[in-house]
Amino acid sequence: MGERSHVPGVVIPIAPLTAGxxxxxxxxxxxxxxxxxxMRRVADxxxxxxxxxRISVTDRxxxxxxxxxxxxxxxPGYRFLxxxxxLSFEEITRFARxxxxxxxxxxxxxxxxxxxxxxxxxxxEMLSALRTPDGAALDLTLTTNxxxxxxxxxxxxxxxxxxxTVSLDSLDDATFRAMNDVEFPVxxxxxxxxxxxxxxxxxxxxxxxxKRGVNDDGIVAMAQHFxxxxxxxxxxxxxxxxxTNGWRMxxxxxxxxxxxxxxxxxxxxAVDAQYAGEVAERWRYADGGGEIGVISxxxxxxxxxxxxxxxxxxxxxxxxxxxxxxxxxxxxxxGDASDEDIAARLAGVWQARADRYSEIRSDATARSRKVEMxxxxx
Length: 378
Ligand code: SF4
Known about the structure:
Blueprint: E1 11-14, E2 23-26, H1 33-38, E3 52-56, H2 89-100, E4 106-110, H3 120-128, E5 139-144, H4 149-159, E6 164-167, H5 173-180, H6 186-199, E7 204-210, H7 219-226, E8 232-237, H8 255-265, E9 268-271, E10 281-285, E11 291-295, E12 308-311, E13 316-318, E14 327-328, H9 330-334, H10 339-351, H11 357-360, H12 363-366, H13 373-376
The structure holds iron/sulfur cluster (SF4).
Residues 297, 302-303, 306, 308, 320-322, 355-358 line the site of iron/sulfur cluster (SF4).
């Protein structure tokens, strides 16, 4: 047995890499660091590897999208996290570096609205310098509401961002203004998308959350607008994220209906996933007009291949978008813990994971307490 770390008070299940077997070592004695050093891949109880790390860099946003950050909850009196509660860029980068040792190859920056975090290009520079144990660059992307892209696209690209996803829920200005609930005009997001394309971010993807009776009449128009542009539109089923968006199953437009509507206008052909755990189901236009995707967490759960961990703005790891709580790493990052201590805890948290919320979703679970998406990102 190798030397031991000293992470106080946590029981960590450790699965030696090869066997997929799980053994438990009391953290007072720490994880077996030799095992940790040898680990290149850590898997959870459903043998899903830790591959994607979503990092929320702020809990603030300049929009109040009704399905994510409704004004009646996130109003003028809402208390956002104080600055010193947020992980610093150095802390985020250190955590990400440790996570790459356990198999993370893709990082998505989220929020709130990540581009509101001051000096964000500095963080992107730091993260883009990280490498996997095999020396490969990470797949580094970001999800934004597009509101600042006209100003920031070039700086984000120059800092090392490779690609980007922009949320745009309607091309109809009145509908879009009502959904973002801050009267933000569609044309400015479209200009932001153009700026991202001009800056060389690629691919540029657009996410549209579809809600019945709100914006579902704009599905085909959205598809048509970006056909032939190289921009990939993903249509997302309205989800019961958090506990504030008043989710009802009746408001969900199943992805199969979205596909049927677009197919009727522009025939589609199914495309295989690019990698295990890819969130969007891919379709391409039969006439070569490009690609679209659907994200069907409600009607076609994809938990069995979910490889995503989420780091909150204040340093907690959530192993599911619909979790009700996370595990704190900020104390370790700010204390005297070594990188191996942090790796030991992260490995333990992931190996104990058995999340499958979308497989067990019900009206009852929809009303249960869940972390807010605006806090840990999508
Ligand atoms: S519900 Fe949770 S476990 Fe399932 S795909 Fe979403 S984040 Fe992953």
